[in-house]
Amino acid sequence: MLHPRILVAKTADEAGVLAANEFEAVIAKKPAAVIGLATGSTPLPLYRELIAREKAGKIDFSKVRSANLDEYKGLAPTHEQSYRKFMQDNLLDHISIKPENTIVPLGQAEDIQKMCEEYEAKIEEWGGVDCQLLGIGHDGHIGFNEPEDHFPAMTHEVQLTEMTIDANKRFFESIDDVPRAAITMGIGTIMAARKIVMIVTGADKKEILKKTFWGPVDPQVPASILQFHPDVTLICDEAAYPFN
Ligand code: PGA
């Protein structure tokens, strides 16, 4: 088993700054880097920092390509709660990345299987993901890879668990509006990234974080597979760090 490189920040905002250092370094070395992006509350401080750094001339996103982890099934890209819209609002519209260089799975694809295959093919055509950002769900999911009896390899459709639907209802008018299915990069897609940066903040994530890196590798804790990845940087705040 491999242990991640661990950076412990005082606050969630500082975790965003530390994560921005990782992405800045990747892009400085490779201006056309392929970065894997994530949604949720956790990456927001990072995205604010990345926008500020490009404005300050420290990062140049004009050649960068981005691929998102996941999307709700059935939501149009313009839907207020779609992950495409989240990415536009919180990062992509505020940096110089070219629209054609950003991909998010299409929630409304007619042929989901075909769209998933094309998604994988695009990432491959780009030469693979250089640096993949991850958060973690309370059940150990990464992307929308929920606890299962195996680790799914490729981009695919998933049924969301009650825990995830409940966690995400805060963004919707009512729990009934939360989509029941999603499209997500597979565990194999994620593991193929050359470098992984995982941000975990808040005391409510402490327990799952401990299970992820200091428990058995088990598809019931999907993120635990990261113990087999050779280049994981875990950035957590003091509240989430399991050994405080
Ligand atoms: P959060 O979501 O950042 O909103 O906690 C993380 C996740 O579910 O992967």
Give a verbal description of the structure:
It is a single chain. The protein contains seven helices and ten strands. It is of the alpha/beta class and 244 residues long. The protein has a single domain (5-205, 214-221, 232-237), classed as Rossmann fold (3-Layer(aba) Sandwich). The strands form two sheets. Strands 1-10-9-6-2-3-5 form a seven-stranded parallel sheet, with helices on one face. Helix 1 crosses helix 2 (44-55). The relative contact order is 0.19. The protein binds 2-phosphoglycolic acid (PGA).
Sequence of secondary-structure elements: EHEHEEHEHEEHEHEHE
What molecules are bound to this protein? 2-phosphoglycolic acid
CATH topology: Rossmann fold
Radius of gyration: 17 Å
| Secondary structural class | alpha/beta
Cα distance spanning the termini: 22 Å
Number of helices: 7
CATH architecture: 3-Layer(aba) Sandwich
The proportion of residues forming helix, as a percent range, comes to 25-40%
Percentage of β-strand residues: 15-25%
The CATH C-level name is Alpha Beta
Largest sheet: 7 strands, parallel
> How many strand units?
10
Please state the average pLDDT score.
Answer: 97
Low-confidence segments, ≥5 residues, pLDDT <50?
A: none
Strand order of the largest sheet: 1-10-9-6-2-3-5
Q: Indicate the overall shape.
A: globular
